[in-house]
């Protein structure tokens, strides 16, 4: 493990205790020995998280052809739909674990990378950036307010917060904007740009790894950010985000 990057340990999906230990120690683990099916993804979530698992959100398939880079991020979104007259969340701002299943890897490129967001805040961020991330409220999804299903009520939060169970959250989303009519909006805008630049600067030096078909990358979404390199040709992954009993 480098100062900020990590290569997740590989563990067979039947070695549940080993996978859980690696996930707790590093914030990520690669599960092997599973078929590239949607069922396997759900089984993996139940196996690794066990009785802590509380809520699964709909599976998402991400197909890309000649895909561009995906910068470091933590999965989260605020999306509610009306199902038979009942407001139903399809995504949640506090998805605390994400499972990314490699269905069809690209022939070349598309390597994955991870960063320890805790270390970024504690050891890499400047004092000014650290103060902004821990002390300043933003609207986490303000850039996406026109998307159908995104609640009109702003989701106000700080990038660094703690759950009631004591878990630290370090968010990373490209949807954050200053609060409406915030007197400090100009400063917040500048610091959001500084944050983006600082994250992009660390990406080239992070170690790369390459999941094969069927492998599932499990990420503590509160602790680690993930991304991938550009790739030619086709690539397909399947994504499952969840909430556990330890989520906010």
Structure write-up:
With 248 residues, the protein is of the alpha+beta class. The chain has a single domain, classed as Clavaminate synthase-like (Double-stranded beta-helix, 4-Layer Sandwich), CATH 3.60.130. 23% of the residues lie in helices and 31% in strands. It is built from 5 helices and 16 strands. Strands 1, 2, 3, 4, 8, 14 and 16 form a 7-stranded mixed β-sheet that branches. Strands 5-15-9 form a 3-stranded antiparallel β-sheet. The longest helix has 18 residues. This is Gamma-butyrobetaine dioxygenase. Keywords: Dioxygenase, Iron, Oxidoreductase. Its EC number is 1.14.11.1. GO terms for molecular function: gamma-butyrobetaine dioxygenase activity.
What is this structure's SSE topology?
Elements: E1 9-12, H1 16-26, E2 28-32, H2 38-49, E3 53-56, E4 60-65, E5 70-73, E6 79-83, E7 86-91, E8 97-104, E9 112-116, H3 117-124, H4 127-135, E10 138-139, E11 156-157, E12 160-162, E13 168-170, H5 185-202, E14 216-220, E15 224-228, E16 234-244
Parallel strand pairs: 1-2
Antiparallel strand pairs: 2-14, 3-16, 4-16, 5-15, 6-7, 8-14, 8-16, 9-15, 10-11, 12-13
CATH fold-type name? Double-stranded beta-helix
> How many domains would you count in the coordinates?
1
The helix fraction, in percent, is: 10-25%
Sheet bearing the most strands, described? 7 strands, mixed
Q: What percent strand?
A: 25-35%
Organism: Crossiella cryophila
GO molecular function, one term: gamma-butyrobetaine dioxygenase activity
Keywords: Dioxygenase, Iron, Oxidoreductase
Domain TauD/TfdA-like: 10-236
């Amino acid at each position: 493990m480098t100062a900020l990057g990590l290569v997740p340990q590989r563990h067979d999906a039947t070695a549940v205790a080993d996978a859980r230990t690696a996930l707790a120690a590093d914030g990520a683990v690669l599960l092997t020995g599973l078929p590239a099916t949607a069922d396997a993804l759900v089984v993996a979530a139940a196996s690794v998280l066990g009785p802590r698992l509380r809520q699964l959100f709909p599976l998402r398939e991400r197909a890309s052809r000649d895909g561009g880079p995906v910068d470091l991020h933590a999965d989260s979104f605020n999306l509610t739909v009306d199902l038979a007259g009942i407001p139903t969340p399809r995504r949640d701002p506090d998805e605390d674990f994400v499972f990314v299943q490699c269905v069809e890897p690209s022939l070349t490129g598309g390597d994955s990378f991870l960063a320890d967001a805790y270390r970024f805040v504690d050891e890499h961020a400047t004092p000014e950036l650290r103060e902004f991330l821990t002390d300043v409220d933003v609207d986490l999804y303000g850039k996406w307010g026109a998307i159908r299903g995104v609640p009109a009520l702003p989701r106000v939060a700080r990038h660094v917060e703690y759950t009631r169970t004591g878990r630290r959250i370090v968010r990373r989303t490209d949807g954050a904007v200053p609060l409406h009519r915030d007197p400090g909006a100009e400063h917040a805008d500048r610091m959001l740009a500084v944050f983006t630049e600082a994250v992009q600067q660390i990406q080239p030096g992070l170690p790369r790894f390459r999941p094969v078909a069927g492998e599932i990358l499990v990420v503590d979404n509160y602790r680690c950010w993930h991304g991938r390199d550009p790739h030619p040709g086709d690539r397909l992954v399947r994504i499952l985000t969840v909430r556990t009993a330890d989520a906010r």
